[in-house]
Amino acid sequence: MRCARLRSGYALPTPRAAQGSPSHQRSAILTGGPFCAPIRGPVCTPIDNYAATENEARYCSGAEAIVIGGGNSAGQAAMYLSRSADHVRLLVRGTSLATSMSHYLSSRLEADPKISIEYETHIVALHGSQALDGVTIQKEGAAPRTMPVCAMFVMVGAAPNTQWLTGLVTLDDKGFVMTGDAVDAGSPYATSCPGIFAVGDVRSGSVKRVASSVGEGSVVISKVWDFLNG
Ligand SMILES: Cc1cc2nc3c(=O)[nH]c(=O)nc-3n(C[C@H](O)[C@H](O)[C@H](O)COP(=O)(O)OP(=O)(O)OC[C@H]3O[C@@H](n4cnc5c(N)ncnc54)[C@H](O)[C@@H]3O)c2cc1C
Questions:
Q1: Does residue 33 line the site of ligand 1, with CB under 6 A?
Q2: Which residues contact 4 (CB under 8 A, 6 or more apart)?
Q3: Distance between CA atoms of 200 and 87, rounded to whole angstroms?
Q4: Where in the chain is the domain with CATH 3.50.50.60?
C-alpha cells in the first residue's frame, strides 16, 4: 500500500492510504527512499534495470549489455556484468570518470578488455518488440550508432520521493526531508512537523547506505515512543 497523503490536524498527523479510508495516527516515520532519476532520451520503464545482481548477470550471459551512468553504482554494475556478458558498454555523459567514480574502480574498468567506456555519449533510441534487442547511441558531434544489446542498466542516480510531502514537512533544496537541528526539532530524526520522523535515504544528510538506514530505523523507534508518551 502506498501512503499518498499526510494531513496534520489537531496537532496530530493523519496518513491517508491511496485507496480506502484515512487512518488516524499520532505519529509517522517517513522511510520512502529515493526513486530512480529519468534518463535523457527514450522512455523505457518496462525494460530498464536499476540493479545488477546474479539474476541479471545470468540474463546477460554470452551477450552484450549496456550500462548508463558514470558513478560508482554504474562502475560496479559494469564490472559485475562483465564476468558473464560477452561485452559491457558503459555510457558516460561527461568527459571523464575522475570526479564521479572511485579511482580504484575506474582503473579496473579501463583495464578490463570486456568493458568499453563511451564518454560524452547518450542513448537516442531503443529497439525490440517483446524484449530489448538493440540500442542507438550517439557521441556529441558524431553520427548515431546502433548495436545489439540484451539488456540496459540505468544507474544515473536517484531523487527523493517527497513531492507529496511539500508543505507538511520542511525539505532541503534537493527535496530530502530535513530533521533534527536543521529544523529546530527535538531529536535527530524528528521533522519540522511534530510526530513525523524521517530516516534512511529520504532524510537530508543521511549516509545513503543500507546499514545506516537500518540503524536509523531502529533508533527512531525510541524517539517515537518518547513522543507518544511525552
Ligand atoms: C544501485 C544501487 C546500489 C546500491 N548499493 C549499495 C551498497 O552496495 N551498499 C549499501 O550499503 N547501500 C547501497 N545502496 C544504497 C541503499 O540501497 C540505500 O541506502 C537503502 O536501501 C536505503 O534504505 P531506505 O529504507 O531508506 O530506502 P529504500 O530501500 O529505497 O526503501 C524505500 C521504500 O519505500 C517505498 N515507498 C516510497 N514511497 C512510498 C509511499 N508513498 N508509500 C509507501 N511506500 C513508499 C518504496 O517503494 C521502497 O520500498 C545502493 C543503492 C542503489 C540504488
A1: yes
A2: 16, 17, 18, 164
A3: 35
A4: 3-36+160-229, 45-154
User: Do residues 224 and 197 lie in contact, with contact meaning Cβ atoms separated by under 8 Å?
Assistant: yes
Give the model's pLDDT for residue 214.
96
Q: How far is the CA of 37 from the centre of ligand 1 (A)?
A: 13
Place of cell 490536524: 9
Cell 533544496 belongs to residue: 173
Supply the pTM of this predicted model: 0.72
User: CA-to-CA distance for 168 and 177, rounded, in angstroms?
Assistant: 10
pLDDT beneath 50: ranges in the chain: 10-14, 43-48
* Ligand 1, atom 2, residue with closest C-alpha: 73
For residue 50, what pLDDT is reported? 61
Reported as a single tens digit per residue, the pLDDT across 99-130 is 999 999 999 999 999 999 999 999 999 999 88
Q: Which fold has domain 45-154?
A: FAD/NAD(P)-binding domain (3.50.50)
- C-beta 157 within 6 A of ligand 1: no
Please name the fold of domain 3-36+160-229.
Answer: FAD/NAD(P)-binding domain (3.50.50)
Q: Is 138 helix (H, G, I), strand (E, B) or coil?
A: strand
Q: Which residues contact 22 (CB under 8 A, 6 or more apart)?
A: 7, 14, 15, 16
CA 8, 9, 12, 18 torsion: positive or negative? negative
* Pairwise CA distance, residues 50 & 4, whole Å: 24
One-character DSSP codes across 150-178: SEEEE---EEES-GGGBTTB-B-TTSPBP
What does the pLDDT read at residue 78?
Answer: 96
